[in-house]
Input
Amino acid sequence: MIKPEILSPAGDKERLDAALMFGADAVYLGGDAFTMRAAPANFGVEELERAVKKCHSQNVKVYLTVNTLPRNDEIVLLPSFLEQWDACSVDGFIVADIGVLSLCKKYAPRVPVHISTQAGIVNYVTANEFYNMGASRIVTARELSLTEIAEIRAKIPKELEIECFVHGAMCVSFSGRCLLSNYLLNRDANRGECAQPCRWEYAIMEKKRDGMYFPIDDTENGTYILNSKDMCMIEHIPELISAGINSFKIEGRAKSAYYAAVITNSYRAAVDEYLQNPSADFKPSQWIIDECYKVSYRDYCTGFYFGAPNENAQISFEGGYIRHCDVMAAVTKCEDGYIFAEQRNKFCKGDELDALEPGKKPVFFNANEIFDLDGNELTALPHPMMQFKIKSDLKFTPGTLLRKAK
Output
Protein backbone atom coordinates (compact mmCIF):
# COMPACT_ATOMS: atom_id res chain seq x y z
CA MET A 1 0.00 0.00 0.00
CA ILE A 2 1.26 3.45 -0.94
CA LYS A 3 2.00 5.75 1.98
CA PRO A 4 1.08 9.10 0.42
CA GLU A 5 3.23 12.18 0.77
CA ILE A 6 1.56 15.26 2.28
CA LEU A 7 2.71 18.08 0.01
CA SER A 8 2.08 21.57 1.38
CA PRO A 9 2.29 25.07 -0.08
CA ALA A 10 5.03 27.44 1.11
CA GLY A 11 4.60 30.93 -0.31
CA ASP A 12 7.21 32.43 2.03
CA LYS A 13 9.24 31.60 5.14
CA GLU A 14 6.29 31.96 7.53
CA ARG A 15 4.16 29.57 5.46
CA LEU A 16 7.09 27.19 5.16
CA ASP A 17 7.57 27.10 8.93
CA ALA A 18 3.84 26.44 9.41
CA ALA A 19 3.87 23.53 6.96
CA LEU A 20 6.95 22.03 8.61
CA MET A 21 5.56 22.31 12.12
CA PHE A 22 2.21 20.77 11.26
CA GLY A 23 3.44 17.66 9.47
CA ALA A 24 4.29 18.18 5.79
CA ASP A 25 6.39 15.48 4.12
CA ALA A 26 7.31 17.91 1.35
CA VAL A 27 6.71 21.53 0.40
CA TYR A 28 6.50 23.30 -2.93
CA LEU A 29 7.62 26.88 -3.32
CA GLY A 30 8.68 29.45 -5.90
CA GLY A 31 11.90 31.26 -6.64
CA ASP A 32 12.19 34.85 -7.82
CA ALA A 33 11.11 34.02 -11.39
CA PHE A 34 9.30 31.40 -13.53
CA THR A 35 6.68 30.67 -10.87
CA MET A 36 2.90 30.53 -11.24
CA ARG A 37 2.34 32.55 -8.06
CA ALA A 38 3.88 36.00 -8.41
CA ALA A 39 1.96 37.55 -5.50
CA PRO A 40 3.57 35.67 -2.55
CA ALA A 41 7.02 36.77 -1.39
CA ASN A 42 8.64 33.56 -2.73
CA PHE A 43 12.33 32.84 -2.16
CA GLY A 44 15.62 34.37 -3.32
CA VAL A 45 18.75 32.24 -3.65
CA GLU A 46 20.03 32.70 -0.10
CA GLU A 47 16.54 32.30 1.36
CA LEU A 48 16.04 29.11 -0.61
CA GLU A 49 19.37 27.69 0.52
CA ARG A 50 18.35 28.24 4.14
CA ALA A 51 14.88 26.81 3.48
CA VAL A 52 16.28 23.65 1.87
CA LYS A 53 18.74 23.09 4.73
CA LYS A 54 15.97 23.52 7.29
CA CYS A 55 13.63 21.15 5.44
CA HIS A 56 16.28 18.51 4.87
CA SER A 57 17.22 18.61 8.56
CA GLN A 58 13.62 17.48 9.21
CA ASN A 59 13.58 14.93 6.35
CA VAL A 60 11.20 17.12 4.36
CA LYS A 61 11.62 17.50 0.60
CA VAL A 62 11.54 20.80 -1.33
CA TYR A 63 10.08 21.10 -4.83
CA LEU A 64 10.70 24.32 -6.79
CA THR A 65 8.02 25.58 -9.17
CA VAL A 66 9.34 26.44 -12.63
CA ASN A 67 5.88 26.16 -14.12
CA THR A 68 5.26 29.32 -16.12
CA LEU A 69 5.14 29.25 -19.93
CA PRO A 70 8.18 31.45 -20.73
CA ARG A 71 8.36 33.54 -23.89
CA ASN A 72 11.47 33.97 -26.07
CA ASP A 73 12.92 36.85 -24.06
CA GLU A 74 12.46 34.86 -20.82
CA ILE A 75 13.70 31.44 -21.89
CA VAL A 76 17.26 32.72 -22.38
CA LEU A 77 17.41 33.48 -18.64
CA LEU A 78 16.40 29.98 -17.63
CA PRO A 79 19.75 28.09 -17.81
CA SER A 80 21.43 30.27 -15.19
CA PHE A 81 18.27 30.17 -13.05
CA LEU A 82 18.24 26.37 -13.11
CA GLU A 83 21.94 26.12 -12.27
CA GLN A 84 21.41 28.41 -9.27
CA TRP A 85 18.58 26.32 -7.88
CA ASP A 86 20.41 23.06 -8.63
CA ALA A 87 23.21 24.32 -6.39
CA CYS A 88 20.63 24.80 -3.61
CA SER A 89 19.95 21.02 -3.63
CA VAL A 90 16.21 21.21 -4.24
CA ASP A 91 14.52 17.82 -4.55
CA GLY A 92 12.54 18.49 -7.71
CA PHE A 93 11.53 21.02 -10.37
CA ILE A 94 7.81 21.35 -11.19
CA VAL A 95 7.54 22.26 -14.89
CA ALA A 96 4.74 22.65 -17.43
CA ASP A 97 6.60 23.34 -20.66
CA ILE A 98 8.46 20.76 -22.79
CA GLY A 99 11.21 23.26 -23.57
CA VAL A 100 11.69 23.98 -19.88
CA LEU A 101 11.84 20.22 -19.26
CA SER A 102 14.64 19.85 -21.81
CA LEU A 103 16.62 22.69 -20.24
CA CYS A 104 16.17 21.16 -16.78
CA LYS A 105 17.70 17.90 -18.00
CA LYS A 106 20.58 19.81 -19.62
CA TYR A 107 21.47 22.37 -16.96
CA ALA A 108 20.33 20.62 -13.76
CA PRO A 109 20.40 16.89 -14.58
CA ARG A 110 20.69 15.91 -10.89
CA VAL A 111 17.27 17.35 -10.02
CA PRO A 112 14.16 15.18 -10.62
CA VAL A 113 11.50 16.78 -12.81
CA HIS A 114 7.78 16.77 -11.98
CA ILE A 115 5.28 17.64 -14.71
CA SER A 116 2.82 20.29 -13.55
CA THR A 117 -0.95 20.07 -13.70
CA GLN A 118 -0.61 22.94 -16.20
CA ALA A 119 0.54 20.34 -18.76
CA GLY A 120 -2.99 18.88 -18.74
CA ILE A 121 -2.10 15.17 -18.47
CA VAL A 122 -5.31 13.16 -18.86
CA ASN A 123 -4.08 9.79 -20.24
CA TYR A 124 -1.39 7.15 -19.76
CA VAL A 125 0.18 7.68 -23.21
CA THR A 126 1.06 11.28 -22.37
CA ALA A 127 2.27 10.22 -18.93
CA ASN A 128 4.55 7.58 -20.45
CA GLU A 129 5.97 10.06 -22.97
CA PHE A 130 6.86 12.48 -20.19
CA TYR A 131 8.53 9.57 -18.39
CA ASN A 132 10.51 8.82 -21.56
CA MET A 133 11.59 12.48 -21.60
CA GLY A 134 12.98 12.14 -18.10
CA ALA A 135 10.10 13.03 -15.76
CA SER A 136 9.93 11.22 -12.42
CA ARG A 137 6.45 12.45 -11.43
CA ILE A 138 3.29 13.73 -13.09
CA VAL A 139 0.68 16.02 -11.56
CA THR A 140 -2.53 14.97 -13.24
CA ALA A 141 -5.08 17.41 -14.63
CA ARG A 142 -7.70 18.23 -12.01
CA GLU A 143 -10.44 17.19 -14.45
CA LEU A 144 -9.73 13.47 -14.01
CA SER A 145 -11.80 11.01 -12.00
CA LEU A 146 -10.27 8.54 -9.56
CA THR A 147 -11.13 5.74 -11.99
CA GLU A 148 -9.14 7.44 -14.74
CA ILE A 149 -6.20 8.07 -12.41
CA ALA A 150 -6.22 4.39 -11.40
CA GLU A 151 -6.06 3.37 -15.04
CA ILE A 152 -3.11 5.69 -15.63
CA ARG A 153 -1.40 4.19 -12.56
CA ALA A 154 -1.88 0.69 -13.97
CA LYS A 155 -0.39 1.60 -17.37
CA ILE A 156 2.72 3.58 -16.41
CA PRO A 157 6.02 2.45 -14.88
CA LYS A 158 5.89 1.99 -11.12
CA GLU A 159 8.84 4.41 -10.88
CA LEU A 160 6.71 7.24 -12.29
CA GLU A 161 4.90 8.86 -9.36
CA ILE A 162 1.45 10.45 -9.45
CA GLU A 163 0.69 13.67 -7.59
CA CYS A 164 -2.84 15.06 -7.31
CA PHE A 165 -4.47 18.09 -5.74
CA VAL A 166 -6.67 17.05 -2.84
CA HIS A 167 -7.60 20.38 -1.28
CA GLY A 168 -8.00 24.04 -2.14
CA ALA A 169 -9.17 26.44 -4.82
CA MET A 170 -10.07 25.16 -8.27
CA CYS A 171 -9.82 27.05 -11.55
CA VAL A 172 -12.77 27.32 -13.91
CA SER A 173 -10.39 26.83 -16.85
CA PHE A 174 -8.92 23.49 -17.96
CA SER A 175 -5.79 22.69 -15.93
CA GLY A 176 -5.54 26.33 -14.94
CA ARG A 177 -4.75 27.60 -18.46
CA CYS A 178 -6.99 30.67 -18.38
CA LEU A 179 -6.91 33.89 -20.44
CA LEU A 180 -9.63 35.82 -18.61
CA SER A 181 -7.23 37.77 -16.38
CA ASN A 182 -5.02 38.57 -19.37
CA TYR A 183 -7.92 39.90 -21.42
CA LEU A 184 -9.50 42.00 -18.68
CA LEU A 185 -6.45 43.33 -16.80
CA ASN A 186 -3.37 42.43 -18.85
CA ARG A 187 -2.25 40.19 -15.97
CA ASP A 188 -1.11 36.86 -17.39
CA ALA A 189 -2.36 33.87 -15.41
CA ASN A 190 0.25 31.74 -17.18
CA ARG A 191 2.98 33.91 -15.67
CA GLY A 192 1.65 33.76 -12.14
CA GLU A 193 -0.21 37.09 -12.18
CA CYS A 194 -3.84 35.93 -12.18
CA ALA A 195 -6.25 38.52 -10.75
CA GLN A 196 -8.98 35.86 -10.38
CA PRO A 197 -11.74 37.62 -12.34
CA CYS A 198 -13.57 34.28 -12.22
CA ARG A 199 -14.42 35.20 -8.61
CA TRP A 200 -16.18 38.44 -9.60
CA GLU A 201 -19.92 39.01 -9.78
CA TYR A 202 -21.27 39.40 -13.32
CA ALA A 203 -24.49 40.81 -14.75
CA ILE A 204 -25.75 41.96 -18.16
CA MET A 205 -26.04 45.67 -19.01
CA GLU A 206 -27.82 46.93 -22.11
CA LYS A 207 -25.68 49.37 -24.13
CA LYS A 208 -28.12 52.30 -24.03
CA ARG A 209 -29.17 51.82 -20.43
CA ASP A 210 -26.01 52.69 -18.60
CA GLY A 211 -26.02 51.56 -14.97
CA MET A 212 -29.04 49.29 -15.37
CA TYR A 213 -27.83 45.78 -14.58
CA PHE A 214 -29.78 42.66 -15.35
CA PRO A 215 -28.88 39.49 -13.44
CA ILE A 216 -27.87 36.47 -15.48
CA ASP A 217 -30.07 34.16 -13.43
CA ASP A 218 -33.23 34.46 -11.37
CA THR A 219 -31.70 35.48 -8.03
CA GLU A 220 -31.99 39.06 -6.86
CA ASN A 221 -28.22 39.43 -6.36
CA GLY A 222 -26.96 38.34 -9.77
CA THR A 223 -24.60 35.39 -10.04
CA TYR A 224 -20.98 34.28 -9.81
CA ILE A 225 -21.19 31.97 -12.83
CA LEU A 226 -17.41 31.40 -13.10
CA ASN A 227 -16.70 31.02 -9.38
CA SER A 228 -15.57 27.45 -8.62
CA LYS A 229 -16.12 25.81 -5.28
CA ASP A 230 -13.08 24.68 -3.31
CA MET A 231 -11.97 21.06 -3.34
CA CYS A 232 -11.91 19.02 -0.12
CA MET A 233 -11.05 15.30 -0.15
CA ILE A 234 -10.44 14.88 3.58
CA GLU A 235 -13.23 12.27 3.83
CA HIS A 236 -11.92 10.18 0.92
CA ILE A 237 -8.43 9.06 1.94
CA PRO A 238 -8.98 5.35 1.07
CA GLU A 239 -10.22 6.16 -2.43
CA LEU A 240 -7.23 8.43 -3.12
CA ILE A 241 -4.75 5.80 -1.95
CA SER A 242 -6.52 3.00 -3.84
CA ALA A 243 -6.21 5.01 -7.06
CA GLY A 244 -2.42 4.84 -6.70
CA ILE A 245 -1.74 8.50 -5.84
CA ASN A 246 1.73 9.00 -4.35
CA SER A 247 1.44 12.62 -3.27
CA PHE A 248 -1.52 14.53 -1.82
CA LYS A 249 -1.08 18.15 -2.87
CA ILE A 250 -2.64 21.04 -0.97
CA GLU A 251 -3.29 24.17 -3.04
CA GLY A 252 -2.55 27.57 -1.53
CA ARG A 253 0.88 29.21 -1.93
CA ALA A 254 -0.85 32.59 -1.87
CA LYS A 255 -2.84 31.74 1.26
CA SER A 256 -1.90 32.41 4.88
CA ALA A 257 0.50 30.57 7.16
CA TYR A 258 -2.54 29.73 9.29
CA TYR A 259 -4.16 28.02 6.29
CA ALA A 260 -0.97 26.07 5.58
CA ALA A 261 -0.80 24.95 9.21
CA VAL A 262 -4.43 23.89 9.64
CA ILE A 263 -4.92 22.08 6.33
CA THR A 264 -1.53 20.36 6.50
CA ASN A 265 -2.39 19.22 10.02
CA SER A 266 -5.78 17.89 8.89
CA TYR A 267 -4.43 15.75 6.07
CA ARG A 268 -1.46 14.60 8.15
CA ALA A 269 -3.80 13.45 10.91
CA ALA A 270 -6.27 11.84 8.48
CA VAL A 271 -3.60 9.86 6.63
CA ASP A 272 -1.94 8.76 9.86
CA GLU A 273 -5.29 7.59 11.25
CA TYR A 274 -5.98 5.63 8.10
CA LEU A 275 -2.57 3.97 8.03
CA GLN A 276 -3.02 2.85 11.64
CA ASN A 277 -6.27 1.06 10.77
CA PRO A 278 -6.84 0.93 6.99
CA SER A 279 -10.28 0.00 5.71
CA ALA A 280 -12.40 0.78 2.66
CA ASP A 281 -15.02 2.58 4.74
CA PHE A 282 -12.55 4.67 6.78
CA LYS A 283 -13.61 8.17 7.78
CA PRO A 284 -11.35 10.54 9.73
CA SER A 285 -12.29 11.55 13.26
CA GLN A 286 -14.84 14.34 13.23
CA TRP A 287 -12.38 16.87 14.68
CA ILE A 288 -10.13 16.38 11.62
CA ILE A 289 -13.02 17.09 9.24
CA ASP A 290 -14.08 20.07 11.35
CA GLU A 291 -10.61 21.60 11.03
CA CYS A 292 -11.11 22.08 7.29
CA TYR A 293 -13.94 24.49 8.16
CA LYS A 294 -11.76 26.60 10.47
CA VAL A 295 -9.91 28.32 7.61
CA SER A 296 -11.21 30.72 4.98
CA TYR A 297 -12.88 28.63 2.29
CA ARG A 298 -15.54 28.61 -0.38
CA ASP A 299 -18.17 25.90 -0.26
CA TYR A 300 -16.50 22.52 -0.63
CA CYS A 301 -16.93 19.84 -3.26
CA THR A 302 -14.94 16.81 -4.47
CA GLY A 303 -14.00 18.25 -7.85
CA PHE A 304 -14.04 15.74 -10.72
CA TYR A 305 -12.89 12.76 -8.65
CA PHE A 306 -16.30 11.05 -8.63
CA GLY A 307 -17.44 12.28 -12.03
CA ALA A 308 -18.02 15.65 -13.68
CA PRO A 309 -19.61 18.03 -11.11
CA ASN A 310 -22.23 19.33 -13.53
CA GLU A 311 -24.72 20.35 -10.85
CA ASN A 312 -22.56 21.62 -8.01
CA ALA A 313 -19.21 22.86 -9.34
CA GLN A 314 -19.92 26.58 -9.29
CA ILE A 315 -20.96 28.93 -6.50
CA SER A 316 -23.87 31.02 -7.79
CA PHE A 317 -24.57 33.12 -4.73
CA GLU A 318 -21.39 34.72 -3.40
CA GLY A 319 -17.79 35.38 -4.36
CA GLY A 320 -16.09 35.77 -0.99
CA TYR A 321 -14.70 33.29 1.49
CA ILE A 322 -16.50 31.71 4.44
CA ARG A 323 -14.65 31.92 7.74
CA HIS A 324 -15.81 30.67 11.13
CA CYS A 325 -12.61 30.98 13.13
CA ASP A 326 -9.74 33.45 13.68
CA VAL A 327 -6.25 33.03 15.14
CA MET A 328 -5.86 34.97 18.37
CA ALA A 329 -2.26 34.09 19.27
CA ALA A 330 0.63 31.67 18.91
CA VAL A 331 2.07 29.92 21.97
CA THR A 332 5.73 30.66 22.76
CA LYS A 333 6.11 28.49 25.88
CA CYS A 334 4.24 27.01 28.85
CA GLU A 335 5.78 27.19 32.31
CA ASP A 336 5.09 28.11 35.94
CA GLY A 337 1.33 27.70 35.49
CA TYR A 338 1.06 30.07 32.50
CA ILE A 339 0.64 29.85 28.73
CA PHE A 340 2.95 32.44 27.20
CA ALA A 341 1.91 33.63 23.76
CA GLU A 342 2.23 36.29 21.07
CA GLN A 343 -1.00 37.98 20.01
CA ARG A 344 -2.39 37.99 16.45
CA ASN A 345 -5.94 39.38 16.85
CA LYS A 346 -7.94 41.08 19.57
CA PHE A 347 -9.67 38.97 22.19
CA CYS A 348 -10.88 39.57 25.73
CA LYS A 349 -10.76 38.15 29.21
CA GLY A 350 -13.20 35.25 29.55
CA ASP A 351 -13.24 34.35 25.82
CA GLU A 352 -13.29 30.67 24.95
CA LEU A 353 -10.24 29.68 22.90
CA ASP A 354 -9.18 26.45 21.30
CA ALA A 355 -5.55 25.37 21.06
CA LEU A 356 -4.43 23.59 17.88
CA GLU A 357 -1.28 21.59 18.53
CA PRO A 358 0.34 19.61 15.67
CA GLY A 359 -1.30 16.22 15.23
CA LYS A 360 -3.66 16.58 18.18
CA LYS A 361 -7.36 17.21 18.67
CA PRO A 362 -7.98 20.89 19.60
CA VAL A 363 -8.28 21.67 23.30
CA PHE A 364 -10.90 24.21 24.42
CA PHE A 365 -10.40 26.46 27.45
CA ASN A 366 -11.40 29.90 28.75
CA ALA A 367 -8.91 32.73 29.04
CA ASN A 368 -10.16 33.85 32.43
CA GLU A 369 -6.94 35.41 33.68
CA ILE A 370 -4.72 37.33 31.22
CA PHE A 371 -1.57 39.26 32.13
CA ASP A 372 1.17 41.23 30.43
CA LEU A 373 4.74 40.08 31.03
CA ASP A 374 5.06 42.49 33.97
CA GLY A 375 2.21 40.73 35.76
CA ASN A 376 -0.46 43.38 35.17
CA GLU A 377 -3.90 41.85 34.67
CA LEU A 378 -5.57 42.65 31.33
CA THR A 379 -9.21 42.74 30.28
CA ALA A 380 -8.43 42.73 26.54
CA LEU A 381 -5.52 42.39 24.12
CA PRO A 382 -5.91 45.02 21.38
CA HIS A 383 -2.30 45.21 20.12
CA PRO A 384 -1.02 42.71 17.49
CA MET A 385 2.26 40.93 18.32
CA MET A 386 1.93 41.79 22.02
CA GLN A 387 3.57 39.31 24.39
CA PHE A 388 1.26 38.09 27.16
CA LYS A 389 0.41 35.12 29.38
CA ILE A 390 -2.74 33.25 30.39
CA LYS A 391 -3.08 31.60 33.78
CA SER A 392 -3.44 27.88 33.04
CA ASP A 393 -1.91 24.52 33.87
CA LEU A 394 -2.37 23.33 30.28
CA LYS A 395 0.83 22.51 28.39
CA PHE A 396 1.26 23.13 24.66
CA THR A 397 4.13 22.89 22.19
CA PRO A 398 5.61 26.27 21.12
CA GLY A 399 3.88 27.34 17.92
CA THR A 400 0.49 25.96 18.97
CA LEU A 401 -2.26 28.20 17.60
CA LEU A 402 -4.87 29.74 19.90
CA ARG A 403 -8.14 30.42 18.08
CA LYS A 404 -11.57 31.85 18.69
CA ALA A 405 -14.84 31.07 16.93
CA LYS A 406 -16.34 34.04 15.09
In short: The longest strand covers residues 325-335. The mean pLDDT is 90.
